[in-house]
């Protein structure tokens, strides 16, 4: 591992040296996924939830070309409030380093950095996936999950994507999909969508045991742990479909596509729902962080046994 590429927050470095539980967190959700001031409030709260549940948070970002593993308060505020933070997927990483950019890391990039930094668990909201439409537009998140052996805790793929196609894509390279207390793949703002998981798990201990077996096998894929949004924060499916259809039509009329499409759709849905989908997004981010921290603790305990 090329650790010289990474700039570690002292608390994260100490935890990794002690083989204590650490949870990686992405920064794209702070810079581009949530509006101000909710982005900073949520980032701060998510880190605190990880701490409260026994793990060290490691928010990952690019700062002046340095790969930063764990941010201090001032750095989190910079990512949240600056208008000059670039969205960094894997293809952008060498450019960000060479040009000394400030960048927010996507699911794909955060997974890659976290694994190479020695972090075993990563918490996010929803992964990218196969986009809707006739073109074969696949998020870089999916192939990265197929080659990065890390636990990824999420609430499925973002609702704006083609969820059946995304589920099928995960099956092809052999990404194991677990349902944490559920038998169906969660659909971001919704708890169900009729898509199966590979296995249901009801405890973090089960996740730790499966992850240990996966590491023993030396497979290269991520272990995807999908967690339903808390029931009280779920958006009713009928209302959600109506809002999503309107948002998709707006994107088409404004010729918005590519990497700008998902953030546009999520922002539009928040506007059209008068903040309901935004509240749901924040709720699932917090819940996933709690579960991820508990999994990280369980993995450390399993290793000690």
How do you describe this structure in short?
The chain is of the alpha/beta class. It is built from twelve helices and eleven strands.
Description:
This protein is α/β, with parallel strands linked by helices. The chain has twelve helices and eleven strands. Strands 1, 2, 3, 4, 5, 6, 7, 8, 9, 10 and 11 form an eleven-stranded mixed beta sheet that branches. β7 (121-123), α7 (141-145) and β8 form a beta-alpha-beta unit. α3 (38-52) packs antiparallel against α4, α9 packs across α12 and α11 packs across α12. The longest helix is centred in the C-terminal third of the chain and has 29 residues, at 276-304.
Largest sheet: 11 strands, mixed
In percent, how helical is the residue content? 40-55%
The overall pLDDT, averaged over residues, is 94
What's the helix count?
12
Q: Report the C-alpha radius of gyration, rounded.
A: 18 Å
Keywords:
12 helices; 305 residues; globular
Give the helices and strands, then pairings.
Blueprint: E1 6-8, H1 10-17, E2 22-25, H2 28-33, H3 38-52, E3 56-63, E4 66-69, H4 73-81, E5 86-88, H5 93-98, E6 103-105, H6 107-117, E7 121-123, H7 141-145, E8 151-154, H8 163-171, E9 176-180, E10 199-201, H9 204-217, E11 223-226, H10 237-253, H11 261-272, H12 276-304
Helix pairs in contact: 3-4, 3-12, 9-12, 10-11, 11-12
């Amino acid at each position: 591992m090329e650790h010289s590429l990474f700039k570690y927050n002292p608390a994260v470095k100490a935890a990794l040296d002690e083989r204590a539980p650490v949870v990686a967190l992405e920064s794209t959700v702070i810079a581009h996924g949530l509006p101000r001031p909710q982005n900073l409030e949520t980032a701060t709260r998510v880190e605190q939830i990880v701490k409260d549940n026994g793990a060290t948070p490691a928010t990952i970002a690019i700062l002046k070309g340095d790969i930063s593993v764990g941010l201090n308060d001032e750095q989190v505020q910079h990512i949240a409030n600056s208008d000059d933070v670039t969205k960094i997927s894997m293809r952008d990483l060498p450019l960000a380093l060479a040009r000394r950019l400030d960048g927010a890391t996507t699911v794909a990039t955060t997974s890659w950095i976290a694994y190479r930094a020695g972090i075993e668990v990563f918490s996010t909201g929803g992964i990218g996936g196969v986009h809707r439409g006739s073109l074969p537009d696949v998020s870089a998140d999916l192939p990265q999950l197929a080659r990065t052996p890390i636990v990824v805790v999420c609430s499925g793929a973002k609702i704006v994507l083609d969820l059946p196609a995304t589920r099928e894509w995960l099956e092809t390279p052999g990404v194991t999909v677990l349902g944490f207390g559920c038998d169906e793949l969660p659909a971001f703002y919704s708890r169900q969508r009729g898509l199966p998981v590979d296995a249901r798990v009801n405890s973090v201990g089960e996740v730790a045991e499966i992850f240990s077996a996966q590491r023993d096998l030396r497979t290269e894929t991520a272990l995807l742990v999908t967690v339903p949004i808390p029931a009280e924060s779920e958006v009713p499916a009928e209302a959600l479909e109506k809002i999503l259809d309107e948002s998709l039509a707006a994107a088409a009329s404004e010729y918005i596509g590519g990497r700008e499409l998902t953030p546009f759709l999520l922002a539009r849905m928040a506007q059209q729902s008068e903040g309901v989908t935004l509240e749901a997004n924040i709720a699932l981010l917090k819940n996933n962080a709690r579960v991820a921290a508990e999994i990280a603790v369980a993995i450390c305990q399993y290793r000690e046994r």
